[in-house]
Each structure stands twice: as C-alpha cells, then as structure tokens.
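User:
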Amino acid sequence: MKISTQKTLLDILTYAILIVGSVIMIAPFLWMVATAFKVPADQFTKTLIPNPATLQNFNVIWDKMPDKAFPHMMFNSFKIAALSTIGQLLTCAMGAFAFSAVRFKGRNLLFTLLLITMLIPSQVALIPNFIVFGWLHLIGSQWPLILPAFWGGAFGTFLLRQYFLTIPHELAEAARVDGASLIQIFWNIYLPNARPALAALAIFVFLGNWNDLLHPLIYLPTNAKLTTLTVGLALFQTQFSHRHTVLMAGALISIIPIIVVFFFAQKQFIEGISLTGLKR
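Assistant: Predicted structure:
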C-alpha cells in the first residue's frame, strides 16, 4: 500500500512538472498568435483573446512588403525547402543503404569519418562553398541553396543508417537469391520499410531550410521577389519595428507550413525517432 501511494505521488509530481513545462513552452506561441490578431493600440496588452480582433496585420504584410513580393517569397521558401528535402532523402538514403546493407572493405572507417564531419560547423564551409559557387557563376541564384542537399549529409545518413540496421538482413539476402539487384533491394525493400525514419528526416530538413536566414542572405540577391520569406521578414522588421502586431502576423504565417507538415507526418516522425538507434 505504501509503495502504491509513493508511485501515485511520483506520477502526480511528474505530470505537474510536465504541465508546467508545457505551459512555459506554449505561452510564447499563444502570445504570438494573440498579438497577430490585435490592433496596434493593444499590442502590449496581456490578454490572449483579442478584443477587437482584426486581420489588418496580415493585409499590411501582403500590401506593404516591397514590390508586393510576399507570395513570391513564400513560393521561393517552399521550393527551396521542398527540393532540399527531396535531395537529402534521396542521397542520405543511398548512403545509409551502402553503410548498412552493403559489405565492403573499410565501411566502418568511412562511416566514422563521415560522423566526424558532424563536428565541423557549417559556417566553416561557407567561404569555400561561396568560392566554388562563384566559380560556377551560380551566385545570385537559388542553386547554391538547393545543390548541397543533393551531396548528402552526415546527420541524415546516420539517422537512416541506424534505422536500416533494424530491417532484417534476411530480406535482402532472400531478394538476392531471387536475382534482385542492389538498386531493386534498396528501392523495393529498404525504402518502403523506412518510411518513419524518412518522415523524421524530411521534417528536420524542411524545418532547417525553411527557417534558414544566413545562406539566403549570402547567396540570393536583394530583389524581394527572388529571396526567401525569412530574409523578407528580417528586412520587414526594420520597417515595422514599432508594430509588433505586424511582426507577429508575419511570424505566424512563416510557421504555418511547418505546423502543417508536422501535423500530417507526426505519427511517422515519432515512430522514426523512437526506433532509430535501437541497433548498432
């Protein structure tokens, strides 16, 4: 009876801590949503239900953005994030398949060297990449933001490789006996069984590229219709620094695609994260 009481108290304490943590994390989001629908005169009020509520802040973003480029920025951000996600999924899956299902000499050493590259900050490679893209005459276009995704990535390869290791190797051996090639095994066995891990990686990559500010600032021109939403909102901030309602409306619009992506892929995302790394 005493043990049962202690367990109940521990459960209550755990749930209380989780509830407090959830409130702390969600409070800024609720404040952003509420502020986005407030009139400028009420932007510093503490109420979470705007009274009166207005959509004028969203109209300001649409009309006052330079050259009315807001839809172009949204499209540019989505295109870059989507293509980068496709590139990462394809190349990282191929690399993960090679490191998990294909046996060759020096495989573990190469995989270790790949993991070591995760210790190198991305900013270190910024100048060499800029020189290479300048030599290719791609500066000022969106290609420097898309092409690196098709070169693979250490994190994505590691994530998918750990998941591929949970797939029974006997499936690949049976397919080889039936005459299937490595490409067929990769495409028909490993990819369909790795949907949760692929969904998890897709969310990570899409989120990272959607929120990226540094690389678009460096590679893309200052033309509002050619840049991304993050850059546009950063430039827009200087114009409406005194109107938090407009800034919060822009921030709300910028996170809606991320919420939508996570909403439709949350089951696969959670499953992929929970199962990745169960086998070494």
